[in-house]
Design brief:
By secondary structure, the protein is an alpha/beta fold. The protein folds into two domains: 39 residues, no CATH class; 154 residues, Nucleotidyltransferase, domain 5. It contains seven helices and six strands; from the N terminus they run αααββββαβααβα. A six-stranded mixed β-sheet has the order 1-4-3-2-5-6. α4 runs parallel beside α6. The termini are close together.
């Protein structure tokens, strides 16, 4: 675990992947992958209420999954860039939590984490068999960039925006809405829970 901590520290500080794993004392990339897998096993699994449903089988949705669901997403980064995580939570129209995803995404900026959280939210909605989705984020920048109201000037964010659009094209109807952080607490909690757990284990 100590070598993983050293690797994450080096990688988060800007060291290249190749340089970071070697300096941390790993013998190969496979050695690093095996160690990171052990860390991943400590983290919360992606989870969907009631197991992974087939399209249209989520409680409260019609036979084709046409009822609108709401997905909140949030990214967290300890440093900018730094160790980061993403989370998404899906709700029925009545406010019932249908499922959630959360994961460690490695080194990222705050904006990258927000984009990756949105991608996670789209994957969650797709797994739930939803057709019509309202995505709620507390990142005004990401919402306005995805809507086309702001130009995306940074190439790495433009690449993430393309991934968002490609994945979102599988959904019939999409709305992107900016909400205050106070209305995004569960996604925020899940994203920070991932980093808190890694910190507790001495990994970040």
């Amino acid at each position: 675990m100590e070598k993983v901590k050293i690797f994450l520290t080096l990688f988060s500080s800007g060291k290249s992947l190749d340089g970071a794993w070697k300096e941390a004392g790993f013998t190969s990339l496979d050695d690093l992958r095996a160690a990171l897998k052990k860390v991943a096993d400590l983290l919360p699994d992606r989870r969907i209420a009631g197991g992974t449903p087939s399209p249209g089988s989520v409680s409260g949705l019609g036979p084709c999954g046409l009822e609108e669901i709401i997905v909140h997403s949030d990214g967290a980064a300890r440093g900018n860039p730094g160790p980061a995580s993403a989370a998404a939570v899906a709700y029925s129209a009545s406010g019932e939590i249908l499922g959630s995803f959360s994961e460690f995404i490695g080194k990222a900026t705050n904006n990258e984490a927000e984009y990756k959280a949105l991608i996670l939210g789209i994957e969650l909605a797709t797994d739930l068999g939803a057709d019509s989705v309202v995505f709620r984020l507390d990142s005004e920048l990401v919402v306005k960039q995805i809507r086309g109201e702001y130009k995306i000037k940074k190439p790495h964010l433009a690449q993430l925006a393309e991934i968002v659009k490609e994945k979102a094209s599988r959904l019939a109807k999409i709305t992107y809405a900016h909400v205050p952080r106070s209305e995004n607490m569960e996604a925020d909690r899940l994203a920070n829970e991932v980093l808190d757990r890694l910190k507790k284990e001495g990994m970040v």
